[in-house]
Write a structure and sequence with these properties.
Strand order of the largest sheet: 1-2-5-6-7-10-11
Shape: globular
Strand content: 25-35%
CATH class: Alpha Beta
Helix content: 10-25%
Structural class: alpha+beta
Radius of gyration: 18 Å
Number of strands: 18
Number of domains: 1
Largest sheet: 7 strands, mixed
CATH architecture: 4-Layer Sandwich
CATH superfamily: Ribonuclease Z/Hydroxyacylglutathione hydrolase-like
Bound molecules: zinc ion
Distance between the termini: 7 Å
CATH topology: Metallo-beta-lactamase, Chain A
Order of helices and strands: EEEHHEEEHHEHEEEHHEEEEEHEEE
Length: 283
């Protein structure tokens, strides 16, 4: 879609499946199973939505999806669709990886950073976006490289170590406008240094790529918080703050893992609960 002088295009980085209970935290299955369907293993299918932002002489890619490096066991556990990758889907749109100036990752979990590297012909690993600066929070890299038992399975060095070795990381601290009209803003909770991406069209309109602070349209409800989150109350506060601004200032919000509802405008319903009042397609 056209957003001021910027073009926003949603690119899928590959679907996968996550445990429905883990995705909805304390919300019981009797409630969430009426809102989404799950398979016989209790898994719900999600997209890994990436967003291409073009204009003002720059190309920015937000998120890189799962990538296509998973061994058979993980592919099986997470039902990862290896036929899809952000690289493949960008090429299908006529966008060469070397034409990307910036890659932003909300955090370094594998379903956001997996598509940033690939297996090289010789068997090693290499960055996919060789010209791009990869924008992440300094603290997120620290946490990813010093994992503990609770987050170790989500941080795979193969997704970010090659970027560091190639000198392609742009480490930022807090809010930062890294390209004209495109800035990262801290939204901690899912991880301590999780960031969302705020896009300004230059004419008074803003779009917010939420990342895992609000992974799907169901998660706009304040109590819907993933059990994966390290700091649940931190997520709650980030959601209250950022979604409040999105309603007050009529920001377009974009969901990173929703395979059916990619983006929309929010409002409060009659009970005061946050709801998606208007759906927007970014395909
Ligand atoms: Zn995620």
């Amino acid at each position: 879609m056209q957003f001021g002088d910027l073009t926003l295009t949603l690119v899928n980085g590959g679907n996968f499946r996550l445990d429905g209970g883990a995705m909805h935290g304390v919300v019981p299955k009797t409630i969430w199973s009426r809102l989404v369907s799950c398979d016989e293993l209790n898994r719900v299918e999600y997209a890994t939505n990436c967003l291409l932002v073009e204009g003002r002489g720059k190309r920015t890619l937000i998120e890189t999806g799962n990538g296509d490096k998973f061994p058979a066991r993980e592919r099986d556990i997470y039902g990862i669709d290896h036929d899809q990758s952000v690289e493949k889907n960008l090429r299908a749109l006529g966008v060469e990886p070397d034409s990307i100036d910036h890659v932003v990752m909300t955090h370094l979990h594998f379903d956001h950073s997996g598509g940033a590297t690939r297996r090289a012909a010789g068997g090693g690993l290499e960055p996919v976006f060789k010209r791009a600066q990869h924008v992440i929070q300094r603290g997120e890299l620290h946490d990813a490289t010093h994992p503990h038992e609770r987050n170790r399975a989500s941080y795979l060095a193969e997704n970010f170590a090659p970027l560091e070795q190639a000198g392609l990381l742009k480490l930022v601290e807090g809010e930062c406008e890294f390209a004209p009209g495109v800035r990262v803003i801290p939204t901690p909770g899912h991880t301590a240094h999780h960031q969302s991406v705020l896009i300004d069209d230059g004419a008074g309109h803003k779009a917010l790529f939420l990342g895992d602070v609000v992974p799907t349209s169901l998660h706009v409800k304040l109590p819907f918080i993933m059990a994966y989150d390290l700091d649940v109350v931190g997520t709650l506060e980030s959601k209250r703050r950022i979604l409040g601004r999105a309603i007050d200032e009529r920001w377009l919000v974009i969901f990173g893992h929703d395979k059916d509802l990619q983006a929309g405008y929010l409002a409060l319903d009659a009970k005061g609960n946050i709801t998606v009042a208007e759906r927007v397609s970014l395909s």
